[in-house]
Amino acid sequence: MSLALPELREARLDNGATVIVAPRPGVPLAAARLFVRAGSGLDPPGRFGLAHLVSTVARRGAGRRSGAGIDALVESLGADLGGDAEEDATVYALTAPAELLERLLGVLVDVVASPTFPAPEFDRLRRRELASLARDSDEPATLAERAVFTAAYGDHPYGHPVEGRTRDLTRLRRADVRAFHERWYLPAISTLVVVGPVDAGAVMDLARDRLERWRAAGEPPPEIARAERGPRRVVIVDKPDVTQTQIRIAGTALPRSSPDYFPAVVANAVLGGGFTSRLVEAIRVNRGLSYGVRTRFAMSRSAGLFLFSSFTKNETAGELVEVAFEEMGRFCEEGATAQEVTRATNYLAGLFPLALETHDQWADRLCDARICGYGLEEVQEYRERVRAVGPDEIRDVARRHLPLAGGVVLAVGPAKRVAPQLERFGKPQVLSARSVL
Amino acid sequence: MPGAADPPIIDLERVVARTLPNGLRVRVYPDRLVPAVSYYSFFRVGSRNERPGLTGISHLFEHMMFNGSARYGPKEFDRVLEACGGTSNAYTSNDVTAYYDDFASEAFDTVVDLESDRMRSLRLTDETLEQERAVVKEERRLRTDNSTFGLIEEQLETLVFQAHPYRWPIIGWMEDIDRIRREDCQSYFRTYYAPTNAAVYVAGDVDPDLALRRIEDAYGDIPAGPAVPAVASGEPEQRGERRAVVHYPAEAAALIVGFRGPPASDGDAAVLDVLQACLAVGEGSRLRRRLVQEEVAVSASVAWAWRIDPGVFMLLLELAPGANRQRAEDELFRELGRVASRGVSAKEVERARRLLRSSVLQEFSTRNGVAHALGQAEALLGDWREVGKALPRYEGVSAEDVQRVAARFLAPTQRNVVWLDPRAAP
Fold first, then answer.
1. CATH number, domain at B382?
2. Does residue A306 belong to the interface with chain B, where contact is any CB pair within 8 Å?
3. What ipTM was assigned to the predicted interfaces of this complex?
4. Can you give the C-alpha Rg of chain B in angstroms?
5. Considering its fold, how many domains does chain B have in total?
6. CATH classification code of A9-211
């Protein structure tokens, strides 16, 4: 059975901005998103974290309103508004009582189109970001996530944390924020999406009225290059006092728009998604090595990673990595059984409607499709396309995209105890927690 | 303006409710918008029902529920469920243990079979117990032993509660996790997992009468259980501030403060929801403005979860490295004192009500959220129909109520204060 899409109304405004309205029955909250296809992938070298800082400071003053004024208006109406940079875009999200959307859509547009970046707010938020980064050092899982993207992507534009690093943030000035906004926040690469129990015609008129006044022009951002997988690295981020080591295994894999997408989704479900995957069985069920084991393909517009994540007591860090590689190796060698493929495809197909249950989920999906460049027929055909994946494609995709050779093995734990256990996977390079922040 | 003219956010007239002769309560909420179903099994047992020496058994037992029953061997539960388009998980709280399955509508009969089989005939073996014990110890290392928040939160509960079972952590003390035996699990299962102590909530794409019939057929022959032992829920009066320091090598300090609140069944529980929104929901809330925007703290948040017995109203401040701790504490207490002595404005209450309305709407926007809310209402308030009062409850709250509960529950003598000191112990 195909999944029904909401009826979409789409318009391209004179300034080049796109508007998509998707009326949908359900709870009386409307989900609005306004995204600009400019994200952390455009952060200039040495100025990492810039797109993120722009998204944070933009909320603190726009049009004629101060940050406090925006807070007061948005929150007094029971709504929520905030911006978030990703690799390929910056997405501003507004969730508001549907009947009050009219009063709030203008604020969303102002925050994106005409932020004032007040100097005191810029200074304060930069200090806060720096403090948050320092605090991240106390969260082993956060450290691991930050470090693994850098270790696996290297110098690629996706290779720095979206939030930037201490040394970059220290260097950033308000002028950088203004310049990034001026250069990249263009209506021609922006899309407004509204989903919920709304009158499509009325919302379209409203969107046109608020958005069309936004005038800015410039060249669209260049496409970001594909990523190459480098030789194997073993990296340990030293946390001398923890009793549990966080483990990641990663390597560059496929971008979101790849024709391998569906085989990769199914392969991942068999190998490390869900509760019955091979890796969960080997690591958690059969050996009790961890509470959590998971793999995923983290896919952006131009590149992506295969990522294995788990954690275990320090004594068994090496054993866990060993088991993970053993299982991944066997998977590439033998592929999946027919029974596993059926189970995984039924699992994915059965649960898919629950991934598109709410207005917010639909809004995010519509944005993601535009940001990463895939068609919505994929949503409609999701279940058929998942069910069409066979064992041969799974093995093929595993062989090409799992980091059996190259890639990175990363541990966050006490280097003294963990390094000897990881030597068999490559010579460990030990980093301090501060150096990845 | 939201209020009296609002249509009800959830149509409880649709609910088909029945109690089987063995005591199992079943409530079905049909909603056919999406071809999927959420199925919750609630057991009225949590860390509240434990005793020292066996803390953590509720949570460890929750893990055991996925390890085989009479007709589905070890590892089969999730395999069978995933093969028909479903997923499951569970959580243990102080008061309840809740299991859920989210699945494609066609899988309904299979889910009923899986769930009733484990309630009827769970198999507990030494082998699976050892395996889950190891997994749970890793979970404890993750969430508590290597987490600054986990460490201070655990310490806080031992201050707020001197006698009540809320004193110990849901996951249990490490030594107790090591001590739990198979026989303990067996007796725990017989006592707390009988239909008498359980309820099933279904929300989603089902025919309610048909669903009810299937559930009756599948669960009807499970024998009713024994009476559940009473909980020693007393707690001596707190006669002054209590303090503790947790030393742990970290980049920056954190402060967690807890006050014993009312039980869920007390009308003031909803007033504290409103106070929470005034204090720490949104950038314009009091603590965000006074503490975060003034750069006294990096973040300020409040956690207030309703519990059967009086629970904890918890405030958390995360500081920047090297920040002035005394100032953070003083400013926090000054703000709480200000609310107690001068109250909040009617505008702040209205803002809080609207924010709460949106969060209730969010909760009801998924089948899982609806099924869970029905179960939670029945477990904490004694009646699933309480779900329908989620919004009216807040409509009645006034600025005077907020001031009154702040003065009553957040008084200086009732404080429990834990600092994370980011240096290793001296």
1. 3.30.830.10
2. no
3. 0.95
4. 23
5. 2
6. 3.30.830.10
